[in-house]
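Form P-L/3: holo structure prediction, ligand fructose -6-phosphate.
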Amino acid sequence: MKIMDSPGKRQTQQERFEKTRTLIYPDSAEASRGLAAEVSVLIRRRQAEGRGVVLGLATGSTPVPFYRELIRLHREEGLSFANVTTFNLDEYYGLDRHHRESYSQFMRDQLFDHIDIPAENINIPDGTVPLDRVYESCMAYESKIEASGGLDLQILGIGRTGHIGFNEPGSASDSLTRMITLDRVTRQDAAADFLGVHHVPRFAITMGVGTILKARRIVLMAWGENKAGIVREAVEGAVTDQISASFLQEHPNATFLIDQAAASRLTRRSLPWLVGSVEWDDAMTRRAVIWMAKKLGKPVLKLVDEDYNENGVGELLTAAGPAYQVNIRVFNRLQHTITGWPGGKPGAEDTHRPERALPHSKRVLILSPEPHDAFVGMGGTIERLIEQGHQVRLAIQTSGNLRVSDVAAHKFASVVREMAEIIGGQGWEGQSAYAGEILSQLAAKGEFGLESETVRRLKGLILRGEARDAAHVSGVAGEALQFVDLPFYEAGRYRRFSLTDQDRETMRAILDEYRPHQIYLTGDVADPSSLQFLCFRSVAETIAAGQAGDWFQDCRVWIYRPLEAHEIDMAVPMSPDQLAKKYDGIRKFQSIQADELESPERNRETAREYDGLGMAEYEGIEAFQRWLPA
Ligand code: F6R
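OUTPUT (holo model):
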């Protein structure tokens, strides 16, 4: 599919809510390949004409697959970047170009060191100019863009605040390159890279919205469910300075390139009956009725024919009405998702239950990408499964050691050293030397230096201890808790991990050895570069390729993550005591920043949603969706 040079706006019936042209791809890899192919056509065409190309580039996880494809085109298909000039969108203020989190370093690691672009053609805002020269330096950046002939193509990602570049809410449509204060949400999103939100710089230098809009062509990429809400607002909402990406609606040649998960909130995906005729199968019916009930603030059983007609769902009544009949079907189905027996209820009729009664007990494999994920996502359900006699194994896929602060490592090493001093004498020399090594490595690396293997290992052990404490609260003990430490994590950093065959092999061996009847997973619609998504893939690819053993025929896979009512296949209710206990468990993760752990509100919200639809009123609900290999 041609991406470049396409008209900025074109409408099909399906797209009629979209005000910026939006192309939905099966996944980020395919979208990135499409964009890279078009960029390569442009570069080669200009080469043939003896002209240069000026590209505006972005950093962050979004463009990484695109850069990988450009590198591949360079290596395998001889694409030269000798005639390319680049201008990056932004840089953190205060970080020099060799700081490991500077965008300058990022660009070298992810692209420039792997292609033949001349060093003098690369432009990135300077994050180290003294304050009194920032304005001047920003104006010089603007002039240089203009002098180069202006941007032929600007590549963008989008932040959860709707920012493009670092144009946070409040940025005017004619703003130029300048210094800006980063939004709290943006700093939170960068916290894992900087090992804690307090390390994330407060300021950045960014091209303005006006600078970006001057580009002749703009492509914004977005992947994963985290971006779905803001993509919808930017594409379908009003043009507003509160969402700088919404200004792309006013550009004659801007395109959003998004994957399925990032598209999931667009009207054509989330409310397809509003943009055309749909097939009213059970899933679509449930989705429409629940949407309508929520919109009108009515329980499902109180919806009447007029509600269907007045809300664009009249067609469903012609196919399956009247209203009370559709209502009752949806109501029953919702009610059947509720179960206090997530592993199946032995001895009970199970036709309408989410999980089979037999076999009892089941071998249950729960996969937690990072140590805290499973406790946050399904801590209450883990406890139920154990109480109900299932053989639960909780496999923690990565050590999570990059999340542990230096302060925590320092504390542990200091305690060991002091114990050695107090107890003294023989037998403690080893411990004392170990503690000394950790403390001096921490001091040598400073706030942002790369951790040595020894420091990462200690941090991993700290999290293991916390995971054991949390597991204890849910009743998971001894061998039931397994630390897998997948190699991709130990070798990488956040947003830049890549999965290896060894990771897939490790997970396959665990599956084949345990032969589970139930698997609980998460990460299916996460950002493709996120650790959660890679952990999901490490298992899902084996299953989807039909490479799991014959045990899989008797196995069900459940996804745990925040789900909306219409997506839920199993809802496990929790009493106030159970919810409180779950959060006791989560609080054991003391070395992880509290704001990275979810609050009990998530489970309460799901319970409120069910209550509003006319179900029984619970304190909290943990929600699951059944996953079937495609
Ligand atoms: C990066 C930039 C930002 C990012 C945005 C999304 O140069 O200007 O606007 O594109 O924050 O970041 P990721 O891609 O990491 O989700």
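COMMENT: The chain has 22 helices and 17 strands.
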